[in-house]
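chain below, 127 aa
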Amino acid sequence: MNVNAEFYNIIREGSLPAMSHFWLNSDYVKCVHATGELFTGYNAVMNSWGLLFNWGQDGGQGTDFQLRDVRARVLADVAWVNMKVHVDVDPGPFHVTNVYEFRNGRWYMVHHHSSLMADPAPHNLFG
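prediction:
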C-alpha cells in the first residue's frame, strides 16, 4: 500500500526522474493511461509519463487524488492494487489497477491501467 501511495506522490510532484526509478526497466512493462493508449516497454512507458507531466500549464504538478476502495493482493514477488481514483480534473473518476514486481529487495511497478468509470446504469447490461 505504501508503494502504491508513493506512485501517486510521484504523479503529484510531476517528477519524471522519480517515475523512472519507480518502474522496472524491462521490455514487458505496460501502461494504459485513461486515454486508452497502450505503451509497452520501459522507454515507451517513460515517454508517456514525460508527455503527461508536460501536459498543461503546471506540468501536471499539484494534481490532487482521492484513492477509494483500495484493495491489495500479494503473492510471492507479485502484487496488484485495485482502486477508484477521483482526480480534481475532468474527466473522472477512474478504475485503476497497478501491478508490482519485487526485485532486488524492492517493489517496482510493471503495469498501470487506468480507465474512466462508466456512469452507473439503471440495469445490468449483461443480464
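The first strand starts at residue 30 and ends at 32. Residues 3-116 form a domain with the Nuclear Transport Factor 2; Chain: A, fold (CATH 3.10.450.50).
thats it, cya
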